[in-house]
């Protein structure tokens, strides 16, 4: 926890200063709670003593798993020795937690005597200043305070609003909401053990029992806790989960190694205000809404910069106050389309995604004050503002705030070097701002035999991925060749597809037989 002057942000070698402080606050709070029981804690010494005593008496020691809803080992065993690789299959295998019907005890009346602790010294929790961070004042601190008391207060605030809990639908939240975030902000408390995920789960079940109807996984709040357990289980059962090499569930992709692009992203100078504002929130708050995390992770990897997901993961790991090994790696694998999710052409636009929620750009103005006077017409694309407007807003693009072109490459090689054939042409068109074929959006919400989903194609056949429908019909993407005149029915969800050729036709590779022969 000692300061590392070589790190790119204030903090130790691995943890940013915000997470260090959050941990210290949590420890102080724990200390106070335990002191109120009139006993000094020394858990490690106590644990070892109990274990030693038990083993010498021939008693087996059982250390229960309680950080997660389920024991990852049990799930893997139930699934035939391998972790389930989709959320749906995880939920199916997991079922209900065995402890769910018995209420979790939340009060401790007394602690056993610690007894002799030998030469161990019990000292109070140090402050950040005592750890060597004297100049802490100059940094903006996260608004979230560490500790169990704060965790329980936040939890109560959320669950007291029964309607909000009952209607919670993750993808519908507003990622730009900062006065009152759209989700619980309990992740840092779960990470540090200030809040039990099992207690959280039971509180949610209590709310569900008392309302007429409520949302369900994957979008409900219980669904969010199941995502957490899903990633813990896969991480636990996958060797080299935190890297591309040697990770059997990770696609091997030739990411680029451009440290300049990485630095522009990390330091909030890509020139895209929506992306940069999120990166400032990461640095200052150590927490961002889930969809905001999606946007910047997609942008760094498959969306724009094509930088290795492991590099982005490292930045998150350092700066997030909720940084969690299994969840962070799992989500980076997901967002970079390296595992779990493979629709790399579903990209979060750095221009229009944020605008949907926050047309006035208040979120950007808050985290990037240099743009606070930019008229709303230009706030998401300030480089398009006429010079007179930039002058009036006291923000000249290229001088006071970067132009995107400097940091963000636009050639197809930089975006998706592995794309070939017609996929390459589609991507090229996309980079020029054209959605030539609308191929990514089959017509119709869910294809049936009577009203099939129409997929457009330049050529007589193309690869299509069926993601299933909403809710129960959702499934892992199933890839198949869709051919002209040959409708296809998805074997999993029975969605029906047909191909409409809107280009020159013929085979997709090589564009016609002539070119295939020399
Ligand atoms: C690239 C990327 C990296 C991420 N890194 C982390 C991380 O290091 N630590 C972390 O806790 N979350 C991480 N997440 C997941 C998610 O964004 C956060 O858990 C969530 O935003 C925390 O806010 P909340 O507590 O208000 O969530 P709520 O929506 O209120 O959800 C309640 C709890 O469910 C769990 N949860 C919610 N979403 C997810 C998810 N997608 N995966 C796993 N568990 C989830 C969290 O424990 C969360 O506290 C990451 C997401 C992305 C896209």
Automatic annotation (TrEMBL):
Pfam families: COX5B, FAD_binding_7. Its cofactor is FAD. Binds 1 FAD per subunit. PANTHER family: CRYPTOCHROME, CRYPTOCHROME CIRCADIAN CLOCK 5 ISOFORM X1. Residues 222-405 form the Cryptochrome/DNA photolyase FAD-binding domain. GO terms for cellular component: mitochondrial envelope; nucleus. The keyword DNA repair does not apply. It comes from the Eukaryota. The record marks 255, 309, 332 as: Electron transfer via tryptophanyl radical. One of its GO terms (biological process) is mitochondrial electron transport, cytochrome c to oxygen. GO terms for molecular function: deoxyribodipyrimidine photo-lyase activity; DNA binding; FAD binding; metal ion binding. Zn(2+) binds at residues 466, 475, 490, 493. PROSITE patterns: COX5B_2 (PS51359). Belongs to the DNA photolyase class-1 family. Keywords: FAD, Flavoprotein, Metal-binding, Zinc. It comes from Hevea brasiliensis (Para rubber tree). FAD binds at residues 183-187, 224-231, 322-324. This is Cryptochrome/DNA photolyase FAD-binding domain-containing protein.
């Amino acid at each position: 926890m000692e300061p590392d002057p070589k790190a790119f942000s204030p903090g130790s070698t691995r943890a940013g200063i915000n997470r260090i402080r959050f941990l210290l606050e949590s420890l102080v709070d724990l200390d106070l709670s335990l002191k109120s029981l009139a006993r000094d804690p020394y858990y490690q010494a106590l644990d070892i003593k109990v274990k030693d005593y038990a083993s010498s008496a021939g008693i087996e020691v059982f250390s229960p798993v309680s950080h997660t809803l389920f024991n990852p080992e049990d799930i893997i065993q139930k699934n035939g020795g391998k972790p389930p690789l989709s959320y749906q299959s995880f939920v199916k295998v997991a079922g209900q937690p065995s402890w769910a019907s018995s209420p979790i005890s939340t009060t401790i009346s007394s602690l056993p005597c610690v007894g002799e602790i030998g030469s161990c010294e019990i000292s109070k929790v140090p402050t950040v200043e005592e750890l060597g961070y004297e100049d802490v004042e100059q940094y903006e601190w996260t608004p979230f305070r560490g500790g169990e008391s704060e965790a329980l207060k936040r939890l109560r605030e959320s669950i007291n609003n029964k309607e909000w809990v009952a209607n919670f639908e993750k993808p519908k939240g507003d990622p730009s909401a900062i006065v009152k975030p759209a989700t619980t902000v309990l992740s840092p408390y779960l990470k540090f053990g200030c809040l039990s995920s099992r207690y959280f789960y039971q509180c949610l079940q209590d709310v569900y029992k008392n309302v007429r109807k409520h949302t369900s996984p994957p979008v409900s709040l219980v669904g969010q806790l199941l995502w957490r357990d899903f990633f813990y289980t896969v991480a636990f059962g996958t060797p080299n989960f935190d890297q591309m090499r040697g990770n059997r569930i990770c696609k091997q992709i030739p990411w680029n190694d451009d440290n300049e692009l990485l630095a522009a992203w990390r330091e909030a100078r890509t020139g895209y205000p929506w992306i940069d504002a999120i990166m400032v929130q990461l640095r200052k708050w150590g927490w961002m809404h889930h969809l905001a995390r999606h946007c910047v992770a997609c942008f760094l990897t498959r969306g724009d910069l094509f930088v290795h997901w492991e590099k982005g993961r490292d930045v998150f790991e350092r700066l997030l106050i909720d940084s969690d090994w299994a969840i962070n790696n799992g989500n980076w694998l997901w967002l970079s389309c390296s595992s779990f999710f493979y629709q790399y052409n579903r990209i979060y636009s750095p221009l229009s995604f944020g605008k949907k929620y926050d047309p006035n750009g208040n979120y950007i103005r808050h985290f990037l004050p240099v743009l606070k006077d930019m008229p709303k017409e230009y706030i998401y694309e300030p480089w398009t503002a006429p010079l007179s407007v930039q002058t009036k807003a006291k923000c000249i693009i290229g001088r006071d705030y970067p132009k995107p072109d400097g940091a963000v490459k636009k050639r197809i090689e930089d975006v998706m070097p592995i794309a070939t054939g017609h996929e390459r042409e589609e991507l090229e068109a996309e980079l020029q701002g054209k959605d030539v074929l609308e191929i990514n959006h089959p017509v119709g919400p869910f294809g049936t035999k009577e009203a099939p989903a129409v997929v457009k194609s330049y050529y007589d056949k193309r690869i299509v991925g069926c993601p299933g429908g909403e809710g129960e019909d959702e499934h892992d993407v199933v890839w198949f060749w869709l051919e002209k005149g040959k409708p296809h029915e998805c074997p999993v969800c029975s969605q029906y597809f047909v191909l409409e050729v809107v280009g020159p036709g013929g085979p997709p590779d090589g564009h016609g037989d002539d070119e295939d022969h020399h």
